[in-house]
Amino acid sequence: MPSLLFYLLALITLGFGFMVVTGRNPVTCALCLAASFTGLAALFIGLDAYFIGIIQILVYAGAVMVLFLFIIMLLDIKAEEGKKLNLAPIISGVLVAVLLVVQIAAVVSSTGIADKTSENTPLALSEASGKIGRAALPTITNDLKEGTLPDAKLIGFTLFDQYGFHLQVIGLLLLVGTIGVVVLSKREKGGAA
Amino acid sequence: MITLGHYLVVSGMLFALGLAGVIARRNIIIVYMCLEMMLSAANLALVGFSRFHLVNGLPDYTAQSLVFFTITVAAAEVAVGLAIIVALFRTKQSVDVESVTKLQG
């Protein structure tokens, strides 16, 4: 990815992220979060993770943000105006965040692994077609020989070949989550809720 | 030249922004949005490591599978969390974190 594009996308992601943290109106915050997630999805696509980029937009910028906006409008939350700022949490939050960034930057600058670029670790697509073992399905190897990265196919193969059980557990988690939401939202007759 | 370090620093900054929001904000819904931001920051680090750790000349798809699972869990978590916020709003008529003091000693 060109340097300029990376800095632009990082600026979009972090800038809108900053507006989420500082915004007064929850609806503005939710829309800024959607913009931030879209920038993040573009960063994923720049890292050759097309499938992850697309589901980032579909799930986060789509489904999750709609849910947030729906709840904000359902509860009719107004912007917090006129409330005095309590300084102690704000100062401690900024302090912890700055310390964390300094720490991460120090660790990243002290390891050699962080110097990898897409130039010195290029994808070797046509060479990979002979080496991928069980994933050597005709549809995947043909794509690799043509020089395109069959991203979704390879993720799908990895998920269903190595992580089939985990995938079913995740499915069960979604089912339990759905039931939990229904139980939580049900208004009990005559109860305190 | 964009290195893995650049992605890791952006990921760390996004995580720190989310952490600052979780500590400093008082609106539960915005605290929740900041939590989502922290999860996404972890995903960015994972995808960066996946791209720059080549297996047979391809990105490491184990990391991207983990990102897939994280996004799924985050979606389930948002649904349950927002249901809890709605239930809380019904009893307290407020989304301020300081209105919830029942467990305070």
Architecture overview:
The complex is a heterodimer of chains A (about 190) and B (about 100). Chain A is mostly helical and about 190 residues long. Chain A has 2 domains: about 1-80, NADH-ubiquinone/plastoquinone oxidoreductase chain 6, subunit NuoJ (Four Helix Bundle (Hemerythrin (Met), subunit A)); about 130-185. Helix content of chain A is about 70%, strand content about 0%. Chain A has 8 helices and no strands. Chain A is extended, with a radius of gyration of 22 Å. Chain A starts with a helix and ends in an 8-residue tail after the last helix. The model of chain A has no long low-confidence stretch (mean pLDDT about 85). With about 100 residues, chain B is an all-alpha fold. Chain B has a domain at about 25-95. In chain B, about 75% of the residues lie in helices and about 0% in strands. Chain B contains 3 helices and no strands. Chain B has helices spanning about 5-25, 30-50, 60-90. Chain B is elongated and about 55 Å long. Chain B starts with a helix and ends in a 13-residue tail after the last helix. The chains are: A mainly alpha (about 190), B mainly alpha (about 100). Chains A and B meet through helix 1, helix 2, helix 3, helix 4 and helix 5 of A and helix 1, helix 2 and helix 3 of B.
Please write out the topology.
The complex is a heterodimer of chains A (193) and B (105).
Chain A lengths: L2 H20 L3 H21 L3 H26 L11 H24 L14 H4 L9 H9 L4 H12 L1 H22 L8
Chain B lengths: L3 H21 L3 H25 L8 H32 L13
The first-level CATH class of the largest domain in chain A is given as: Mainly Alpha
Indicate the proportion of strand residues of chain A: under 5%
H and E order of chain B: HHH
Greatest interface: A-B, 90 and 73 residues
Number of continuous helical runs of chain A:
8
Radius of gyration of chain B: 18 Å
Which tags fit this structure?
heterodimer; A: 193 residues; mainly alpha; Four Helix Bundle (Hemerythrin (Met), subunit A); 2 domains; 72% helix; B: 105 residues; 74% helix
